Amino acid sequence: NEPKAWADMYDAYQQEALKSRLQIPLLYGIDAVHGHNNVIGATIFPHNIGLGATRDPQIVEAVARATALEVAATGIDWDFAPCLAVPDDYRWGSTYEGFSEDTDLVTELGGAAVRGYQSAEIDNPNSVLACAKHFIGDGGTSFGTGLNGLIDRGNLAVSEDELRKKHLPPFQKAIDEGVATFMAAYNTWNDLKCHANKYLLTDLLKDELGFKGFVVSDWAAIEEIPGDYKSDIITSINAGIDMVMVPGAVKFGNQSFENFLKLFKESVEEGSIPMERVDDAVKRILLIKKQSGLFERPFSDQSLLSNIGSKSHREVAREAVKKSMVVLKNKENILPLPKSGKTIVVAGRGANNIGMQSGGWTISWQGEMGQTTNGTTILDAIKSSVDPGTLVEYSVDGKGFTGDIAVVVIGEKPYAEMQGDRKDLKLAKEDLDVIARFTENNIPVVVVLLSGRPMIVTNEVDKWDGFIAAWLPGTEGSGVADVLFGDYNPTGKLSFSWPKTVDQFPIDPNDDHLYKFGYGLTY
Predict the structure, then answer these.
(1) Which of 4, 62, 99, 374 yields a CA-CA distance of 20 to 30 A from 161?
(2) What three-state secondary structure class fits 45?
(3) Which of the residues 70, 79, 97, 218 is marked catalytic?
(4) Tell me: the pLDDT tens digits for 481-519?
(5) Can you tell me whether residue 112 is helix, strand or coil?
(6) How do residues 161-192 score in pLDDT, each as one tens digit?
């Protein structure tokens, strides 16, 4: 899993494609949702929830542009990003993929992301094709209607008027910015799967909104349409799916691509899928391949590999991190922390943990705890920020350490989409135990929370002196320390209301929350 190996793999696939009769190059797509996050050594940026708190379209565009360059360096042409969901129930495991609960903010930042990934010129060799996902409404599905009785892939039960008002504007903006591709959503809208919904994919997206690019299905998503696999193929393609994402193996219980090809061909030959629909899909895909310069430049440009994890990109990431920090509590101005004259104890399982501070979609699908890739942990960043001679002690569990101030880094273990669905959003007992070891000894505590969503802290926060929502900042922990020590005066504002209880879902910004949408302290 090294950058050059990715580029060589891409080139090998392309060489095979170009041996075919028509010599049409492959379009290779990847989930690079916060940096080129499958590649060890790539810069890992904050997830969208953190970028939402910056409220800064310039930094969002810069993050997307840096991501695009790192992706393009490995030859890859197409990024399944940005996610334009408008999440309103944080028990959903993909909440952190959304910029905000607020449609206008998602629209503004989503447009900036499309510009950054794809650039104004679609054939720019330093950019990638963007993908507006997931069309449509996955952020508004009802709890209890999804997988395992939870929320992911559930049902969006809203009127068309509400769908257009709340969920459509970010996608309209993506089209205005020239986005090349759309990805359909797993969820249903009023009990009809989006992948089967001709009104959404053809009548609304292609005809009414005038989208000229192509629509790709999500991973094995057509299999979730009721009926057998052949009818799934017929229904989805006739609904407007132009390219189908089919798993390469059946190990997950999914259909094989060989079976897809056989049944698809049968469906066309018997007239169940009209040839005009096939021609339209093929034309859309070929047009994007042609417009993006893929025919002229089918291979990777390995001179770009030095951009992966570069110093300049890590600086962009650090700026994004510090702008994303939201200071929620600052009792007696404990923040910013002093750089000298005090002993600082750093504790908590997130303090020295690149995997935890990066979250899901990092090296592996669900992400992992520990040293998963190169970066600066929050502990290392704190050590680098203090003056020479200042004592920084470190203890994961906080046992046996006393100091003048404790910084305790807690939060969620990494997860992605469905595996991140939860019934409650309580903090882990082991995290609360670490904090208690300091509060019970009257040592002031600053809690730094690493999470993909606001957590329920209503009963605990009174005991804390400082509280920072750090979201999932990625590899550049120095941005967290910049705010802790006041090298950057915090500007982050909540892009999601912070509820008191889970009974406040779906979120209503006018409700009485622990911290309101837009809240954030400065020094």
Answers:
(1) 99
(2) coil
(3) 218
(4) 999 999 999 999 999 999 999 999 999 999 999 999 999
(5) helix
(6) 999 999 999 999 999 999 999 999 999 999 99
